[in-house]
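Ops channel
N.P.: pipeline sanity check, posting one input/output pair.
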């Protein structure tokens, strides 16, 4: 039921005859096509046209009535059929056939984190090489503020849900950084601070030869069981990539806690699959499908790394990730819905188990029996959202607590130490410094060149508070008639902006509008930083859409398109908005 509450964008509706149900690919109790269906190429292009995205579509993560999952492009679909669903995608029957897009297959680089670094180190990856990546990332981060070329180089491998990196690249290429635009400079300061913060707190290390991709199944049957197909393609402002990977690759998902979660496969070139870009195509052959060998967390896609220095040399047997069957009832009553909803909302044990796992992995290594058991419990806890048997839920939590008790019962239960911090997340870290690769990334980085000193903690003092860089070339004679209205609208905008800053608990306008939040002033009702960012993103999208509509409304023609014959008026209005925002006289008046 939780799928009805996650964020998405409604696109279009279907007729029943445009959607088919096809069999899944099953073997040995495993579903090789789990959660993956098909769509026509024409429909994929039409869908992306409606959301104004200039990408070559290969796969969409969607909801369609009572179904959800991934739709991959298949050029051989029967005429008139736009979508083919598999039974594993159908959660409940529904006559409501409106398509909602959750995610689009695009190319973006991936980062390592403490959990992955710990596993890689245990599986034979060189700690020194990971540290080399850290130092290279630090050098690039230091150069971000030195000039446009350096900023573009740092931004090029990165993308984000806010679209900030693309916006920054476009603005820098247009000359706004060179002209000293304070807003662009402040965003770059926040970008740099956010990178340093994530590196220090999470050991978040950029890997250039990597991608986070949506996983699909090989419908051609040409891939062998140990093979995948990966074609990365990117023509956005932040990158220019078009490559079919042909090498060994490491594949995993986040979060990954079990040593068997990292799988090593061969990426090969299959011409019949060239229409699939920015996805990882898994084989439909073998005794067991690869996705079932990875951890249960697949909300952010599959991580693929083809940097040969980061390929594990040791292979650990995968854990058996089998979901428990939910309780079946003859009739769903209101009490069932209430119980399911309450458990969906209140479930919050994942973070506690993950913190305890990191503490034990730092101390004993990820292959220790305590860590293996915690990895199993972490997966089980992730499945509790779907569990409908309260007794079974309580049993798993009880067993998890018993394992954690061997380390520190307070860590799992969330009890506070006398210092007011979580015993697992903080106290144990201090006892185990330099014991694993995850901690060494943080500690070595700190000692080398005092990486985090002068750190992000005083970031507000680095932001430009006063002064402006009004560019006189944007002064247009016709803008005078728009000035008074622009001043009025700016006042309304400032009020709404201040309300959002207060509501979401961020310090600055730049943090709010970019998502580069260095410090949250308050947490509110959100239980995770991910959820905070997600809610912030929704608010910012709504704010931007509202003001884009305000700026364009009077220029919309008969066909709901901007009337380009009014180009002079459009430029004049834009110039007036720019004037009341940047001109020194206006800034003196409004502060």
């Amino acid at each position: 039921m939780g799928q009805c509450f996650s964020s998405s964008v409604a696109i279009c509706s279907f007729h029943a005859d445009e959607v088919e149900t096809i069999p899944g690919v099953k073997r040995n109790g495993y579903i090789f096509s789990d959660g993956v269906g098909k769509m026509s190429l024409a429909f994929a292009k039409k869908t992306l046209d409606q959301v104004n995205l200039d990408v070559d579509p290969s796969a969409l993560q969607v909801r369609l009535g009572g179904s959800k999952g991934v739709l991959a492009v298949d050029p051989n679909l029967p005429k008139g059929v736009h979508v083919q669903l598999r039974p594993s995608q159908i959660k409940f029957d529904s006559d409501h056939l409106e398509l909602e897009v959750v995610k689009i297959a695009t190319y973006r680089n991936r980062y390592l984190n403490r959990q992955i670094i710990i596993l890689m180190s245990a599986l034979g990856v060189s700690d020194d090489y990971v540290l080399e990546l850290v130092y290279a990332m630090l050098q690039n981060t230091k150069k971000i503020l030195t000039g446009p070329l350096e900023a573009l180089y740092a931004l090029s491998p990165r993308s984000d849900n806010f679209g900030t990196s693309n916006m920054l690249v476009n603005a820098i290429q247009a000359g706004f950084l060179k002209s000293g635009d304070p807003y662009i400079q402040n965003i770059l300061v926040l970008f740099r601070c956010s990178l340093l913060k994530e590196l220090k707190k999470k050991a978040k290390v950029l890997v250039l030869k990597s991608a986070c991709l949506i996983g699909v199944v090989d419908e051609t049957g040409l891939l062998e069981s140990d093979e995948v197909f990966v074609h990365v393609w990117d023509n956005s402002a932040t990158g220019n990539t078009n490559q079919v990977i042909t090498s060994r690759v490491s594949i995993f998902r986040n979060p990954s806690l079990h040593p068997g979660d990292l799988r090593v496969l061969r990426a090969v070139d299959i011409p019949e699959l060239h229409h699939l870009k920015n996805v990882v195509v898994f084989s439909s052959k073998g005794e067991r499908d690869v996705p079932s060998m990875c951890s249960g967390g697949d909300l952010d896609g599959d991580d693929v790394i083809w940097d040969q220095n980061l390929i594990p040399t040791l292979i650990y047997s995968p854990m058996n990730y089998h979901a428990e069957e939910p309780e079946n009832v003859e009739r769903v009553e209101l009490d069932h819905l209430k119980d399911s909803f309450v458990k969906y909302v209140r479930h919050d044990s994942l973070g506690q188990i993950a913190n305890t796992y990191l503490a034990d992995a730092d101390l004993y290594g990820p292959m220790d029996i305590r860590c293996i058991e915690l990895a199993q419990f972490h997966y089980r806890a992730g499945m509790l959202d779907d569990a409908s048997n309260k007794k079974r839920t309580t049993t798993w939590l009880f067993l998890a607590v018993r394992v954690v008790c061997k380390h520190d019962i307070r860590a799992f239960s969330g009890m506070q130490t006398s210092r007011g911090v979580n015993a697992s997340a903080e106290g144990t870290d201090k006892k185990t410094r330099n014991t694993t690769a995850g901690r060494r990334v943080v500690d070595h980085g700190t000692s080398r060149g005092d990486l985090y000193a002068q750190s992000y903690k005083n970031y507000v003092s680095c932001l430009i508070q006063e002064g402006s860089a009004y560019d006189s070339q944007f002064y247009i004679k016709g803008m005078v008639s728009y000035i008074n209205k622009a001043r009025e609208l700016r006042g309304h905008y400032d009020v709404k902006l201040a309300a959002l800053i207060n509501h979401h608990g961020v310090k600055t306008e730049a943090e709010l509008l970019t998502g580069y939040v260095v410090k949250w002033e308050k947490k509110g009702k959100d239980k995770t930083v991910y959820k905070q960012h997600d809610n912030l993103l929704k608010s910012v999208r709504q704010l931007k859409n509202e003001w884009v509509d305000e700026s364009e409304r009077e220029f919309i023609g008969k066909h709901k398109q901007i009337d380009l014959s009014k180009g002079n008026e459009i430029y004049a209005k834009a110039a007036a908005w720019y004037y009341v925002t940047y001109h020194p006289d206006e800034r003196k008046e409004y502060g």
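N.P.: looks fine end to end. Residues 2-104 form one domain.
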